[in-house]
């Protein structure tokens, strides 16, 4: 399943738009990456997720986690 279909499915299940899904997912990712009082395990996990600009996009975050799960 590609990212577009994932967003659509989530949006449909929750009665919102795809844009709202993407915006809320990114807000959640931004929140945890900007959090000051992170545990060591949070730091390790965040450092293991690759991104081009420090805080991953929703696509980068999901793809990185999916890759880790496949291992």
UniProtKB/TrEMBL annotation:
Pfam families linked: Spo0A_C (PF08769)
Membrane-spanning intervals of the chain: none
GO biological process: regulation of sporulation resulting in formation of a cellular spore
Native source species: Desulfosporosinus youngiae DSM 17734
Domain of life the protein comes from: Bacteria
Record's keyword annotation contains Phosphoprotein: no
Keywords: Initiation factor, Protein biosynthesis
Protein name: Sporulation initiation factor Spo0A
GO MF terms, alphabetically ordered: calcium ion binding; DNA binding; DNA-binding transcription factor activity; translation initiation factor activity
An example Gene Ontology CC term for this record: cytoplasm
Domain Sporulation initiation factor Spo0A C-terminal stretches: 4-69
